[in-house]
Amino acid sequence: MTHQRYRDLAEWPLMGTALIFLAAYAWQVIGRLEGSGASWLEAVMWATWIVFAVDYAANLWLAPSRWDWFVRNLHELLIVALPFFRPLRLLRLVTLLSVLHRTVGETLRGRVVTYVAGSAGMLIFVGALAVLDVEQSAPDAKIVTFGDALWWAITTITTVGYGDLYPVTPIGRMVAAALMMSGIAVLGVVTASIASWLVQRVEDTAETVAEAVEEPVRAEVAELVAEISALRREIAELKENRTL
């Protein structure tokens, strides 16, 4: 099996695994479960981590140039090698974006909607979960509920930053930095996509107008050609009559 073939086959199962992980992680963080419930959810997340580890090994084995793939995908190694750093494991959810991008179509308008609704929505939700996970039990924490975490994530990704809520732990600040950079990247892609879409719309409109103007002109030219041909025939007939 080729590397690309494996990636095509594994895309949807990995998306399902990522969704299962996200649901279990959100349930554990928001619900603050303890006892058997927490143990069950932890087992689910470990199972999804095993799937991600197997996927990493398969990609490395099937890659045409294993060393190049290894160097270009160091973040994948971090996600697999640091299972105890749970916010980092959330990076595996970028699979959702790649699958969503492939399924919505190739129009510029479709890509804009995808990036805005998919990327921003997922980053806000994941960022809120990650920061709540590390902040809610910290001393002097400002972010202690999921509502606080969502509000903080929205103000952070949009670079507004009111300052009413902020992380106080080192890991929480790392999550904030990652969310800031991701937000800038998403907004940049959206802006570029909108600009490209506007340019395409202007070009399409110009072509439509040119075609609308050209059609009457072509009709008039055809009529003139027909009239000129008729005049030539009449002139030729007059010359023949004079000769006779």
TrEMBL record:
Keyword Transmembrane: yes
Highest taxon of source: Bacteria
Domain Potassium channel: 144-199
Protein's name in the database: Ion transport 2 domain protein
UniProt GO cellular component terms: voltage-gated potassium channel complex
Membrane topology reported for the UniProt record: Multi-pass membrane protein
GO BP: any one term: action potential
Keywords: Ion channel, Ion transport, Membrane, Transmembrane, Transmembrane helix, Transport
Major localisation: membrane
Gene Ontology terms, MF aspect: voltage-gated potassium channel activity
TM region(s), chain numbering: 12-31, 43-62, 112-131, 143-162, 174-199
Species of provenance: Pseudarthrobacter chlorophenolicus (strain ATCC 700700 / DSM 12829 / CIP 107037 / JCM 12360 / KCTC 9906 / NCIMB 13794 / A6) (Arthrobacter chlorophenolicus)
UniProt keyword Nuclease present: no
Gene3D superfamilies reported for this sequence: 1.10.287.70, 1.20.5.110, Voltage-gated potassium channels. Chain C
Subcellular location: Membrane
